[in-house]
């Protein structure tokens, strides 16, 4: 029994590790694809070559992030057959077609137009090239739609029946795809992707503004990024609140864990800001809380009753400490994003957006915040669903393959080593690209193949007589 438990834990850790690596790349590429479409559209509209230079700068970064997302996604799909074969067998009639639709629509659309977007502007003309860029952006959004439909169905399953073999058989595809949590989770994820990209673009712009003092390329990307943060952050907070209310309706145990409510509160529940959840003793130690605020947020009434985990059987409770803290990391970073957006609006109003070093330092520090918030959100969602893989119907303990712990441990160690080598090198390369702007002639000569993605400085003797490289 202990070997089985260890194997289950290791299989869960392996999937958590691979999905954590995978999700950061789509979270970046979804927003970056839309940003590229905006840049090229502005270039076609305003005929300002600055937008084209920024397009070429971010195009290379997008290609690398997209490739790493594809590779990490392929690895994840194999795990359904290795570590989670029972889940694949039981849920395959529902999950399989949805994943297939994602490949047939979104991935083929992205892959079909990606080459044109990366290499075809001089061959197909600006109009068709812009169409290709739009199709790549649309493809990333369609991909997110199918993946979120799959995961949302696992959170709030409907539209199925269970046959004699214990398999989930589709009965109503519309109900499966448009399940109760799908619209909220799709909006929340897409907004998170846009915020993640805006924070990265803003951090890169801030880095160059601090180093170069109002470089026009850095100024433009920073201004666009801060505008996106200022608009998207408050919308994301509203979407998150609606998503939370939907989760309370369909997965109350998850919200109980997020709030740290071990006990029911018939006359109004406090909002626990911080504390140490003690699942064994069923309490939050050293809690710092605001009376009645949780009732106000969840039920819009100060004295509204709020159910606690004392209404849930112990073996059906999610791991409270992980969900409690991951939720607070996500919300805390969301508040910082809102603060950054408001701070940028203040400097935009004053006309000092590109000359405010403390704003630039704040934006630079917030560069990785979107990735961390996305990971914290997914941890909240997935760990909060436990002990189920398909909420209310299929337990995680009943979903895994019958393989021993040493085999899972070996593959987990191999994944960790290979992932850190491969994706670590890719991430390091992306960071190197971000440290340079298109007009860096010295770095262009050193980079070799990267010259085609750069804009040489005509004043530099090494670039006299060369074309603009686009």
What does this structure look like?
With 470 residues, this protein is mainly alpha-helical. It has 2 domains: 1-179 and 404-438, no CATH class; 181-396, no CATH class. 70% of the residues lie in helices and 6% in strands. It has helices at 2-46, 49-82, 85-119, 121-124, 126-155, 173-177, 182-212, 216-250, 252-259, 293-299, 320-350, 357-365, 369-385, 405-434, 441-447; strands at residues 160-162, 168-170, 271-278, 283-290, 388-390, 394-395. A two-stranded antiparallel sheet has the order 1-2. Strands 3-4 form a two-stranded antiparallel ribbon. Helix 1 (2-46) packs antiparallel against helix 5, helix 2 packs parallel to helix 8 (216-250) and helix 9 crosses helix 13 (369-385).
């Amino acid at each position: 029994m202990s070997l089985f438990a260890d194997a289950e834990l290791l299989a869960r850790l392996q999937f958590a590790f691979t999905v954590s690596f995978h999700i950061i790349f789509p979270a970046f590429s979804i927003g970056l694809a839309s940003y590229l479409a905006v840049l090229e559209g502005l270039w076609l509209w305003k005929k300002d070559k600055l937008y084209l230079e920024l397009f070429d700068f971010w195009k290379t970064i997008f290609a690398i992030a997209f490739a790493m997302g594809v590779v990490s996604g392929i690895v994840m799909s194999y795990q359904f057959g290795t570590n989670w074969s029972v889940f694949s067998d039981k849920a395959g009639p529902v999950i399989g077609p949805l994943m297939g639709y994602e490949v047939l629509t979104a991935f083929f659309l992205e892959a079909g137009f990606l080459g044109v977007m990366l290499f075809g502007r001089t061959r197909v003309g600006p109009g068709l090239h812009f169409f290709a860029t739009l199709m790549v952006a649309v493809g990333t959004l369609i991909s997110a739609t199918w993946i979120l439909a799959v995961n949302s169905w696992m959170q709030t399953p409907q539209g199925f029946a269970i046959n004699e073999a214990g398999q989930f058989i589709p009965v109503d595809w519309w109900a499966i795809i448009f399940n109760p949590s799908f619209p909220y989770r799709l909006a929340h994820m897409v907004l998170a992707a846009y915020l993640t990209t805006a924070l990265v673009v803003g951090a890169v712009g801030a880095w160059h503004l601090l180093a170069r003092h109002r470089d026009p390329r850095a100024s433009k990307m920073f201004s666009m990024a801060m505008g996106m943060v200022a608009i998207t952050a408050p919308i994301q907070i509203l979407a998150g609140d609606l998503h939370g209310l939907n989760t309370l309706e369909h997965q109350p145990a998850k919200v109980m864990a997020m709030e740290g409510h071990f006990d029911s509160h018939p006359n109004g529940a406090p909002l626990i800001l911080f504390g140490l959840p003690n699942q064994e003793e069923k309490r939050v130690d050293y809690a710092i809380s605001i009376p009645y605020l949780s009732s106000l947020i969840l039920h819009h009434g100060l004295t509204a009753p709020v159910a606690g985990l004392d209404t849930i059987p112990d073996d059906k409770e999610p791991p409270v400490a992980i969900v409690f803290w991951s939720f607070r990391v996500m919300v805390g970073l969301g508040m910082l994003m809102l603060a950054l957006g408001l701070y940028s609006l203040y400097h935009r109003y004053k006309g000092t957006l590109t000359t405010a070093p403390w704003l630039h330092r704040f934006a630079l520090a917030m560069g990785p915040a979107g990735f961390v918030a996305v990971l914290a959100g997914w941890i909240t969602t997935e760990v909060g669903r436990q002990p189920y893989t398909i909420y209310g119907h299929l337990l995680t303990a009943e979903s895994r393959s019958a393989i021993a712990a040493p085999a899972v441990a070996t593959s987990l160690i191999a994944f960790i080593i290979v992932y850190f080598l491969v994706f670590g090198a890719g991430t390091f390369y992306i960071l190197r690209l971000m440290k340079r702007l298109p007009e860096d002639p010295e770095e262009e000569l050193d980079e070799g193949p990267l010259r085609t993605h750069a804009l040489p400085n005509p004043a530099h003797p090494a670039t006299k007589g060369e074309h603009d490289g686009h």
